[in-house]
Specification:
Elements (H helix, E strand, L loop, with lengths): L2 E7 L3 H18 L2 E7 L2 H7 L5 E4 L8 H11 L5 E5 L5 H4 L6 E4 L4 H18 L3 E6 L2 E6 L3 E7 L2 E6 L5 E5 L2 H7 L5 E5 L2 E4 L3 E4 L3 E4 L4 E3 L5 H12 L4
Parallel strand pairs: 1-2, 1-3, 3-4, 4-5
Antiparallel strand pairs: 6-7, 8-9, 8-12, 9-10, 11-12, 13-14, 14-15
Helix pairs in contact: 2-3
Length: 239
């Protein structure tokens, strides 16, 4: 099961908790895994530049308001779906100037939220449907990046393990070539011999990451610290 990172920017802990509850319910109802992170100010959002697959942004925030934060976001990121959640309905039209996907007025009932979340998840999945060409012995295969669980080096071949558990694509190459062909924002390198798709990490241990197909990928001594820091940034928590 893939992990999608959802960022909630709202100065109200109570309203952020309500939205997080809606997200938890949606995840359970639809069989997806949502990693939710809460920021209390747009200042923190702009300064830290947290990576996310979907952003819920309040507008009425202290310091820098949500609209100003969204304008800054769009100078560096034109793709990540953005939904405004606010009691300031008059800003709805302005939201489209920063290419907001949707606009929800507080308080938002779950039924309305779920309908809008369906639309948001379609946009998230479209953004994540990057494909790479893998030249195997039987011909070139086009594979979605999100379907790759991990890549390992076996002698002089790269073996791509995919999410359905049945496909193991073998291609001549090096880990360095795999690193160059896959998005750095999605993959981490536990050792010289493998790459892990962070969307498919189910557990992080002191000596390894466990993938959601059950495979453990062990850290090399030289890469352990960098990997843990990368995973912390990805999941928005201390590891």
């Amino acid at each position: 099961m893939e992990t999608y990172r959802v960022l909630v920017v709202d100065d109200s802990d109570e309203e952020a908790a309500t939205l997080a509850g809606h997200l938890d319910r949606y995840a359970a109802d639809h069989g997806v895994r949502l990693q939710v992170m809460h920021l209390r100010s747009a200042v923190e959002f702009v300064a830290e530049r947290h990576d996310a697959d979907l952003i819920f942004m309040d507008i009425d925030l202290p310091g820098i308001n949500g609209m100003e934060a969204a304008e800054e976001l769009r100078t560096r990121d034109a793709m990540t779906p953005l939904i405004f959640v606010t009691n300031l309905a008059q800003y709805a039209v302005a939201g489209y100037q920063v290419d907001a996907l949707d606009f929800m007025v507080k308080p938002c009932r779950y039924a309305d939220f779920a309908m809008r979340m369906d639309r948001a998840m379609r946009a998230v999945r479209r953004n994540g449907d990057q494909r790479i060409a893998i030249p195997t012995a039987s011909g070139v295969r086009l594979v979605s990046v999100h379907d790759i669980v991990f890549v390992e080096l076996q002698r002089h071949d790269l073996v791509y393990h995919t999410a359905d558990g049945t496909d193991q694509l073998r291609a001549r190459g090096s880990i360095r070539q795999a690193v160059e062909s896959l998005p750095a924002s999605s993959f981490v390198q536990p050792s010289q011999g493998c790459l892990a798709n962070m969307a498919h990490v189910s557990a992080v241990r002191s000596d390894s990451v466990e993938m959601d197909d059950g495979t453990p990928l062990y850290f090399s001594r030289s890469r352990r610290r960098d990997c843990l820091e990368t995973l912390s940034r990805y999941f928005g928590t201390t590891i």
